[in-house]
Amino acid sequence: MASSLHTLFFFLAIFICSSGYAANVPSNGLVLPVGKDTKTSQYYTTLQMGSNHATVNAVIDLGSQFLWFACDSYASSTYNPIPCGSKKCEIAKGIGCAGCNLPPRPGCTNDTCGASPYNPFENMLYSEGFAEDTLYSKNNVKVSELPFSCFQSEYLIGFASIATGMLGLARTEISLHKQVANKFKLPDKFALCIPSDKGVGKIYIGGGRYTTPKSLVSTPLIINPVSTYPIYTEGDPSDEYFIDVKSIRVNGRPLAIKTSYLTIDEKGVGGTKISTINNFTVLHNSIYKPLTRAFVKAAANMKIKSIAAVAPFRACFSVESISSFVPTIDLVLPGKNVYWRIHGANSLVKVNNNVSCLAFVDGGKEPRTSVVIGGHQLEDDLLEFDLVSSKLSFSSSLLLQNSSCSRV
């Protein structure tokens, strides 16, 4: 009898331990909501940090290296600064040591691993320190010891009024998707679906289950050999997400542009990257001008009436002359019949009740990157970034499939 009880307790203990372990491993990865601030057209997510579950509304930046947010009133018993010279500081690629002459608090500690959070809206780089704390998501996932940077809210110049920080999703060791992959032994991948003015999108981190559109097109993610971050060490590649656009078509007709603009040279100039920070796709002037001309001509053939331009756009149209269809724009990718098609909801933006404009802007004659695919072109598209296979899978507009980011 004693032996039977011992066996029963043994298996019961295994069950309890196994259940507790499983409860800490998210079956659906980490899921975060995505909203759009209508005033700034910035996309943000909401998460909780620290022992007090402080709410952080973080603008989503595919090109930013880590999470950073304002800590003016942040209080957490699980907050820990990362010491300079430590292994964690090395992984974070910390720069020097940060100090503070005021009483210690989150964001103000001595001998702390130096961080350089970047504000892309003001083109400002700040000197702060790295720390770590626990992140909590709305789908009850707990990510402990997550590296981030803490700073003062006065640095939030240019941010949406609701925002208190920035969530970086670049391909770094301390980005949220990499940390989730490492801690929970999940694949290093994430899916992003950003909404238009109405609705709520989602970020699925760790290969979570979501409603997959009928057709996903895949293309390789390529590496820009030169870092595009404001501060870097010589030899560092870019952490941003580039794809190999071969040509651009309007209504099936290729644009007459130099292919050299679409390639990345030895200085890291040129090519195509994806951005959630730029409101609209930004094009090298020598790409923008032929694209605009071709679109206006194709629109005229469809009886769409051109009217006076509204800055920053140069091709605008009368809303009442636009029917269900407008010219399509294709970003042609490697492979047979592989392209990213941009339809009306993503190619035009309504600037007032009477005017819609081609939602692309001129990036000048010497931009660092020739094509920067912006937020408006990403709305209601599902994007899956697979860092294991180094590929991007995308849906094009979900609206054409009677769906949206709110329903994925």
From TrEMBL:
Keywords (A to Z) from UniProt: Secreted, Signal
Keyword S-adenosyl-L-methionine tagged: no
Peptidase A1 domain: residues covered: 43-395
The organism of origin for this protein: Olea europaea subsp. europaea
Signal peptide: 1-22
One protein family per Pfam: TAXi_C
Keyword Transferase in annotation: no
Family recorded in the similarity comment: Belongs to the peptidase A1 family.
Location in the cell: Secreted, Extracellular space
Entry's Gene Ontology BP terms: proteolysis
GO molecular function, one term: aspartic-type endopeptidase activity
Cellular component terms per the entry's GO annotation: extracellular region
Lineage, opening ranks: Eukaryota, Viridiplantae, Streptophyta, Embryophyta, Tracheophyta
Protein name: Basic 7S globulin-like
